[in-house]
Amino acid sequence: MSDLFKVAIIGSGPAGMSAAGQAAKREMSHILLEKTDHLSDTIFKYQKGKHVMATPSDLALRAGGYEEGVHQGMEFEEGTRERILGIWNKHCRIEDERMPTYEGEVQDFDINTRLNAEVVSVEGEKGNFSIKLKDGDTIRAETIVLAIGTQGNPNLLRCPGADHPMITPQLDDPEDHIDKHVIVVGTGDAGIENALGLATDPALGNTVTVLNRGTDFAKAKIKNATDLTSADEEGFLNISYRTSPAEVRDGEMVVETETGQEIIPCDMIITRIGSQPPRKFIEAMGIEFTSEDRSAFPKLSPEFETTKAGVFVIGALAGYPLIKHCMNQGYDVIEFLATGEAVKPADEPLLEKVFENLPGGKSVDYWLELYRTNVDIFAGLSTLQMRELMLDSICTAFAPGEVIFRRDAPGSSLFAIAQGSVAVEVNPNDPSITVPIGQGSIFGEVGLVSGRRRGATIRAAEDTVVVELSRKAALKLIGSSPEADEAVKRISIERQILQLFGSGLTPEDIKPLTDSAVVEEISAGKVVIQEGADDKDLFIVRLGSMRVEKGEGERQTFLGLIPAGNFFGEMGIIDGLPRMSTVRAAVKSEVIRLPGEGFLDLLAQKPQLRERALQIMDDRRRSNEEIESRQDKDGGKVDNFSGLASFLFDEGMGEATDALLIDERLCIGCDNCEKACADSHDGLSRLDRETGKTFAYLHVPISCRHCEHPHCMTDCPPNAIQRGADGEVNINRETCIGCGNCKSNCPYGVINMEPVPPEKPSLLSWMMFGSGPGPGEAPYSWRKENSDPGVAKKAVKCDMCAGIEGGPSCVRACPTGAAIRVSPDKFLTFAKMTEDVEG
Questions:
Q1: What is the full DSSP assignment across 263-306?
Q2: Does the residue 494 lie in any domain?
Q3: Would you give the end-to-end CA distance of the chain in angstroms?
Q4: I need a labelling partner for 27 at 20 to 30 A (CA). Which of 210, 305, 665, 741 fits?
Q5: Using one digit for the tens of pLDDT, what is the confidence trace for 717-746?
Q6: How far apart are CA 77 and CA 314, in angstroms?
Q7: Boundaries of each 4Fe-4S ferredoxin-type domain copy (predicted)?
Q8: Are 322 and 255 within one domain?
Q9: Which range is least confidently modeled, 129-143, 145-159, 676-690, 752-766?
Q10: pLDDT tens digits along 605-629
């Protein structure tokens, strides 16, 4: 049995190495236990040659540096995986020639290290812990520092075939894989770096597909996300957005896309989808977690001590995984054990600046605890996670009546109220009509989800303290905290129901509905309501759109479109009859399912709501009957209309808010639309009339649809893409950095990367002095000069001629009326009208 150590450090990742290095520097009795035959398994498993970053750049590293010529603790600076491992191995007393070393300065301390020391159990109390190893030995220590991370417990795919031998959670050396079809699942930093390593070396000849469940890269560094989208644009790999695994089979993966299932051939699948703490092992020590959720972290004191006295947790297992953070924690916990005094974290000066404008001169700890305690979406976060989140946020105090943001202002950030309350001005014509939002709640979630401009002016109703989370920080929070995800969903559901049903409802009125609501993701083409079925639930379209059909067998009559923000299913609930039509997802969508009985109870309590629901139901019934009555004996007309409607759905009309259509029976091919577009936008047309698809007489050119939930906005690092007051999606060329993310994300190919064109002269200068370029496109000579790939380019797309009197130039310039811009509630009417003309 070993002697009693002052501290036993379990795990030799960055956090454990730093703690052990500081213990050795202080000549504290210690032992570093590592279950593998090498140090720092997490970094050891990084792909060969990976560059390890020392971020955040403005955070001081306490574990390194010199004081009076003596090195203070474990060294770390950015460099290759091999260099970092070599330096760290130099500090450890390991007599093993397999350990890589770095021929640099040998530091003046040795770490007492034991490899192949897998811990199977921990017993005892503070002052006398017994650590049992797999090989039968027992280590005794007064205190324990757990720095084991979570990488040993990778998440598995949630689909059939998740245990297929093609699947691996890591990539060692990209050069070991040649001429393979590889699928990478996960778009955090690890997944992106694996994909780039396999795809960007042409000599390897790999075909790489990256699956992104969403459309952004909230968990990745900006540089990694930019490099990935650039590689996609340049053809090195393919990113498949809004795509998730459905099944793994020999040599292929079935994936669920926006438009249905597809099969991708593959030889290897790399799953970088996160990992979970080894909860059973940790709880056996008597350590409590912040919640029952499988991804929750242990409860920790500010000094990193768990609910088990004498056991400390640092590093990724504490929810703070960046290497510099981990190493600072290792230093801090050893200093606490050595001196008995808490060490102010290294990020304290940074957080002091975040909170410096808040009232009362309170400490960082005070504000962190206030925000964590008072704000619902922060309930599941540890103090360490709160510190990281606040570094990316803006904390502000507002006086009563002070405006936080105004109606129609651009913005995609999320706000949370830590103290006080706000008043939402719901009537633009009467600011005195307001709805309160109280302490602990959030606002701004509509801009976060859809990118639309602010829907109302919001003022502080009293002395109020809020925190503003950038879109990236908010999405990262929602993606990493189940409690935050649940809170945002609950609040957004409540507000969507209130906005949709109106009729003077309050949150208390709809609480039974909100509490029983379920958000469901619906794949493209999947049936939500089946004609003839007897279910009685009500649905709200949260994202995407639904198509309504009626018929038998393969013969289906298209009845209409239900875009995001509308409800359906009320007919069967109110009438009590079987479903009269089939409703299926037009594109990959999300719906809110509400119990029909709860909706009926609400109708009984609110006569105004009942009247409104009956009116909507009658309008829909009349519309359906009108379409059905158009069907002749052979079904010709309705088939034409259904085919046309299906075509429009396939071309993105199911998620459009404004789209350009061209009636080819009227179009004379003059290209006035393109010329007018170019003349209105510095010589760069945002319209390609000839390309695009046509059904019968109706042509959908390459032009922006201004989607309800724009794909292009989901990952714009400088936040250069905004929505106008009328829903138009604009790109600010002044702030655009030319990363190309928007172009990669757009499924309709309507965004181009173009150099900044020469300034247009006035019409008089052009006519009288020949100054150029004149009307229309930029000259060919300029385009040729700027065609080189090295020329800086920025994103351009249709902006609906925002700010130009008279509206879209393409429509105004059409001499025959062939070009028309339509919104979802009009395009099917337009299709029916033109179908009548055709008939």
A1: EEE-SEEEE---B---HHHHHTTT--BSSSSTT--B---TTSB-
A2: no
A3: 94
A4: 305
A5: 777 888 776 678 888 888 888 888 888 778
A6: 20
A7: 658-690, 727-756, 792-825
A8: no
A9: 752-766
A10: 888 888 888 888 888 777 777 666 6
